[in-house]
Amino acid sequence: MVAGEAILSGASAIDRGTNGPSESERSQAEGADESIAALVRDHSRLVYRIAYAALRQHHDAEDATQEVFLRVLRYRSKLPEVEDPKTWLARIAWRVAVERSKRRPANESSIDDDTSPVDLASDAPIADAQFEHSQATAILEKLIEALPEKLRQPLILSTIEEMSPREVAAVLGANESAVRSRVFRARKILEEKLSERIGNRDQE
Prior knowledge:
Largest sheet: none
Distance between the termini: 47 Å
Radius of gyration: 21 Å
C-alpha cells in the first residue's frame, strides 16, 4: 500500500539521519522497523478499511492510514508492549478517522462517487438490476449516516468491517454486551426504515 510504503521509507530516513548511533541503538531501531514493516504488511488494509468506513472518501482514508502509521512510528519504542496489534491499530485508525471527519466542512460530500442513482439512469444504459442495487446502496448509506453515533459506530465496525464484538468493544472503549445490544438495535432500525421506504415505493 502506498501509505504504508511511505511510512517505511520515512522510518529509514529517520534512522539514517541519526548522528552516530551505537550498535545497540541501531539494533533496536532495526528491530522496531521490522515490527512496523510487519504491521504495515499484515494490517494496512484493515487500517484503510476502517478509515474509509468513517470517512467515505478514498483520498481522506489514504491520508488517515498514513497518519496512523506515522503515530505508530512516533511511538515505536512501545511496540513490544502491544499484546494485540490488530485491535491496537484498529483503535488508533478509528480515532484518527473520527478526528478527521469532525474537522471536515459540514457541507463536504462523504461519498466518493458524486453521481447519484438518478444521474446514472440518465447518463448511460445500465441494467435494471444494477440500477436498483445502486439505489438500494445509496438509501442504505443515508440510513446508516442518520443513525445515532453510538449505534452507527459499532454497526460499521462489526458489519462492514467484520470485526468481532470483542474487537469492536476494544476499539470503541465499550463493553462487549453493549456492542452486541447497539448493533442489534441499529439493525432493527435499518430494517424498519427500509421497510417503510419499500412500502412507500409500492404505494406510488
